[in-house]
Design brief:
Number of strands: 16
CATH class of the largest domain: Alpha Beta
Oligomer: single chain
Keywords: NADP, Oxidoreductase
Number of helices: 10
Helix content: 25-40%
CATH topology of the largest domain: Quinone Oxidoreductase, Chain A, domain 1
CATH architecture of the largest domain: Alpha-Beta Complex
GO molecular function: mRNA 3'-UTR AU-rich region binding; NADPH binding; quinone reductase (NADPH) activity; zinc ion binding
Protein name: Alcohol dehydrogenase
Order of helices and strands: EEEHEEEEEHHEHEHEHEHEHEHEHE
Shape: globular
Pfam family, one: ADH_N
Largest sheet: 7 strands, mixed
Length: about 325
Amino acid sequence: MANAIRFYEIGGPEVLKYEQTEVGEPGPGQARVRHTFVAVNFIDIYFRTGRYPLALPNGLGSDAVGVVEAVGAGVTDIKPGDRVGYLLGPQGSYSDVRVMPAEVLIPIPEGVSDSTASTLMMKGMTAQYLFRQVYPLKGGETILYHAAAGGVGLIACQWAKALGVRMIGTVSTDAKAEVAKANGCAEVIVTSREDIAKRVRELTDGKGVPVVYDSVGKDTLMASLDSLQPRGHLVSNGTSSGPVVIDTTLLAVKGSIWVTRPAMIHYATPRPHMLGMARELFDLVAAGKIKSEPSRTYPLRDAAEAHRALESRQTTGATVLVP
């Protein structure tokens, strides 16, 4: 038996139920993983509230780290005792043990703790594909990044600095501004008292930026468009404030803007590519250029409280559950 969070209807955090479930032996191509840390991501809220539909009842959560307990037939590159993490596969990481497709498991190298790895699976790999694939940064650019004090944001601050990129980050409070600066964000805009686009123009001598990474969505759409150079790129990588709806005519008016809505699955597969992404990320950790630990931890049974904190914008950095 395993302890797990499941939900039977969409709604608020109260729909999350802590209960016992059956966990069998891994079949061909599978591995059973006992979790040490489970990451909480904003996408989990999208599933819980029905923004991203799931067949119910279902588990929740997309990434975790732990130790392999057993493997099924045909699994050759993962063995019992290996420390692994994952960010792809079926929902259900909010559990203490589960069976997973072995092809999505990422070996965690020596020198990287489970607690650090728990903040890097989805969040670190998201920073990788945003900065190295969706709009590849070469160094020397000035960029705008929304939610710079969030779980992905703090890694992005450090990654931008390592690349020699000048990152302008947005945050909601002065306290979060200090956190973003401490992690390498070059310039910080406090949205509760500053006009984003106006401040970006001031910081770029009126030119604007070539790319905006926007995980906020509806509330920041116009500010993002108004911050871009002609033929700039809007990377819409989240909608925490609500869905983005764009009149394509507006894109022409704002400077022939390019817009993309990337999804991890299209950037982290096939497996050899995913492992290459992870190597680049872990190499930066080993070099001391990215440092990351959970900012908040909750017992697995208190997943609803973790969701409430995340939705209320109380958190900075990564939030994790401990089985």
